[in-house]
Amino acid sequence: MKQRLTILGSTGSIGTSTLDVVARHPDSYEVFALSAATQVELMLAQCAQFQPRFAVMASAAHARELADKLQANGLATEVLQAPDALEQIAAHEDVDAVMAAIVGAAGLGPCLAAARAGKRLLLANKEALVVGGALFMDTVKRHGATLLPIDSEHSAIFQCLPEDRTTWAQRVDSILLTASGGPFRARDPASLSQITPEQACAHPNFSMGRKISVDSATMMNKALEVIEARWLFDLAPERIKVVIHPQQIVHSMVQFNDASILAQLGTPDMRVPIACGLAWPERIESGAARLDFSQLAALTFEDADARRFPGLHLSWQALRAAEGTTTVLNAANEMAVDAFLHRRLSFDRIHAVNLETLEKMQLPQAPGSLEDLLAVDARARDCARAAVQRWALA
Ligand SMILES: NC(=O)C1=CN([C@@H]2O[C@H](COP(=O)(O)OP(=O)(O)OC[C@H]3O[C@@H](n4cnc5c(N)ncnc54)[C@H](OP(=O)(O)O)[C@@H]3O)[C@@H](O)[C@H]2O)C=CC1
Ligand SMILES: CC(=O)[C@@H](O)[C@H](O)COP(=O)(O)O
Ligand SMILES: [Mn+2]
């Protein structure tokens, strides 16, 4: 029986890598539904190749445009419109697994819908878990969903941890998330105000979407990954460490209480964690190049300089603060990065917007529901929008 897949965000970097792996295994996987925001032409091409039952677009206009093109090409895929349709294709009774590859908090609703339906949830969309936190993990557990990390560091940790989750806490001292340090790791911090979106999106090892690429450059990606790891592996923040490893051959490590360290290595190619998530506990061909140790110059490791990467430490700070603070941090960062990408804010002020939003946002009570979380997210975005305007003019 083939695994029937919904791919949320199929036209993005993770989405297209997922379809690359799926196309290598036509006897094991079939595409049930795809989703995108605005890329109609790419979605049309994906529908022609994989013939999904449904395709979802973010707006009525893009949905109509896709429907017309599908009809003109004699393709039977039915077009639906987000946001309701995203939850529909994530939870559909004819779906076995959902690849969560939408960028940002926008992916939280469909992720929770997949979890409530007890699906195999392949999570790349780290912001959904950063915002959802305890509610996300409780929903997975309560409905018997299977949550598999796709983020390369968290996939590495998952591959190194013992299968028996009940004994992790006693055997694991800490986990070490590796980080590239981004494209400006060795650059003079005084010159960061001049950085352009194109420079910030030039990641040293991976070709990724624009938002995560900027996050890697500020190391806010690693801050989000610390929060993601806290929830995925139920670890206290102080047991989650970060080490800069520019080559990104070691994708992260687990430090056990007998001083052993287990690590997962490989070429920096997202098709490896994607294949791992699709096939787990089996393994399938990912298409990634094999690591040739004779060609490896050196594997180096260094501390993350708090001066150069002030955003990284906001993760542990937010995890120790009032519940909902990580939702505020994520919302502020999404707004600041979007302003930077649209040239309304300089690169070196992304952190200032995040800091100011955290300082100004009051959290009277813990957000206990999705509605509460979305309300905190919306208020934080309003607060961050004002901070962007202030810092853009300063
Ligand atoms: N890229 C990578 O290597 C890695 C990515 N991740 C995580 O995976 C997620 C996806 O990243 P990536 O693939 O790089 O992102 P991209 O920006 O490349 O793709 C995002 C996808 O989501 C769609 N989308 C964007 N906004 C919305 C919205 N508001 N509602 C519905 N769909 C939307 C896009 O549609 P459209 O194409 O039409 O704009 C696209 O299909 C992120 O959370 C990222 O942090 C984690 C590890 C590595
Ligand atoms: C491929 C992946 O998982 C990204 O999160 C990438 O690792 C970015 O890494 P840095 O944030 O360490 O540059
Ligand atoms: Mn990562």
UniProtKB/TrEMBL annotation:
Q: Which GO terms describe its molecular function?
A: 1-deoxy-D-xylulose-5-phosphate reductoisomerase activity; isomerase activity; manganese ion binding; NADPH binding
Which cofactors does the annotated protein need, by name?
Mg(2+); Mn(2+)
Q: Which InterPro entries match?
A: DXP_reductoisomerase (IPR003821), DXP_reductoisomerase_C (IPR013644), DXP_reductoisomerase_N (IPR013512), DXPR_C (IPR026877), DXPR_C_sf (IPR036169), NAD(P)-bd_dom_sf (IPR036291)
Q: Which GO terms describe its biological process?
A: isopentenyl diphosphate biosynthetic process, methylerythritol 4-phosphate pathway involved in terpenoid biosynthetic process
Q: What gene, per UniProt, encodes this protein?
A: dxr
- Residues annotated as binding NADPH: 11-14, 37, 125, 127, 209
Domain 1-deoxy-D-xylulose 5-phosphate reductoisomerase C-terminal intervals:
147-233
Q: Which residues form the 1-deoxy-D-xylulose 5-phosphate reductoisomerase N-terminal domain?
A: 5-133
Uppermost EC category: oxidoreductase
**Source domain of life:** Bacteria
Provide the transmembrane region boundaries.
Answer: none
The protein here is known as 1-deoxy-D-xylulose 5-phosphate reductoisomerase
Q: Which reaction does it catalyse?
A: 2-C-methyl-D-erythritol 4-phosphate + NADP(+) = 1-deoxy-D-xylulose 5-phosphate + NADPH + H(+)
